[in-house]
Amino acid sequence: MLLIPAIDLKEGRCVRLKQGLMEQATVFSDSPAETALHWFKQGARRLHLVDLNGAFAGVPQNFPAIKDILAAVAKDIPVQLGGGIRDLEAIEKYLDLGLNDVIIGTAAVKNPDFVREACKTFPGQIIVGLDAKDGMVAIDGWATVTEHHVIDLAKRFEDDGVNSIIYTDIGRDGMMSGVNIDATVKLAQAVAIPVIASGGLTNLDDIRALCAVEKHGVAGAITGRAIYEGSIDFAQAQQLADSLA
């Protein structure tokens, strides 16, 4: 069970939102690169970046901060990024800087052919991010809830070559209310692609619960507010996950 620290970027700073609401942002750092180095030193084996402004604008917005993070840690650990990526040029630009994986979210829903094209152009480096509220996929920075059920949509991407699916329960994100284990397992069992859980990770009991369902295809978990506010010690949590593997 791989635990992945999240660095959410808003106007060049490291923040956390509650349920994706930009007006509910808490600033944790003015130096995202230093934050990335901190989690690397704590034992992180991968980092998860989100360009929040990009997710709402539909084009990358935090390029300087992302560039600084990649310069600081990309030589040591893989970094994945989502938010505002809608074309192949944006993907290529980030991969050339050392990004390991690109997460396609809104564009995957609006234009599924883009996922297929991206997987062919950049094999093994594309992740699909599906964010759901009550099982229904949301897009445009979670501002719009669609009529697509998350499992139905995930199945469309099984044969495209995506390396994993990040599943975020919007109702849990940033709320410190625990991971939606049941929904995550149902998705993982429904598709042949590894699923990474996101939203609600709160304490070591969540780590234990996730490790218990790893066999169903839940390969990792993204953690944000819990490690910034201290309800989870990241190094301790990854050691626990390793011991339960």
UniProtKB/TrEMBL annotation:
Its main location: cytoplasm. One of its GO terms (biological process) is L-tryptophan biosynthetic process. It comes from the Bacteria. Its EC number is 5.3.1.16. InterPro entries: Aldolase_TIM, His_biosynth, HisA/PriA, HisA_bact_arch, Isoase_HisA-like, RibuloseP-bd_barrel. It comes from Neisseria sicca ATCC 29256. CDD domains: HisA. The active site is at residues 8, 131. SUPFAM superfamilies: Ribulose-phoshate binding barrel. This is 1-(5-phosphoribosyl)-5-[(5-phosphoribosylamino)methylideneamino] imidazole-4-carboxamide isomerase. The gene is hisA. One of its GO terms (cellular component) is cytoplasm. Coiled coil: none annotated. Keywords: Amino-acid biosynthesis, Cytoplasm, Histidine biosynthesis, Isomerase. Pfam families: His_biosynth. The lineage of its organism: Bacteria, Pseudomonadati, Pseudomonadota, Betaproteobacteria, Neisseriales. It catalyses: 1-(5-phospho-beta-D-ribosyl)-5-[(5-phospho-beta-D-ribosylamino)methylideneamino]imidazole-4-carboxamide = 5-[(5-phospho-1-deoxy-D-ribulos-1-ylimino)methylamino]-1-(5-phospho-beta-D-ribosyl)imidazole-4-carboxamide. It is found in: Cytoplasm. GO terms for molecular function: 1-(5-phosphoribosyl)-5-[(5-phosphoribosylamino)methylideneamino]imidazole-4-carboxamide isomerase activity. Gene3D superfamilies: Aldolase class I (3.20.20.70). It is an enzyme of class 5 (isomerase). NCBIfam families: 1-(5-phosphoribosyl)-5-[(5-phosphoribosylamino)methylideneamino]imidazole-4-carboxamide isomerase, PRK13585.1.
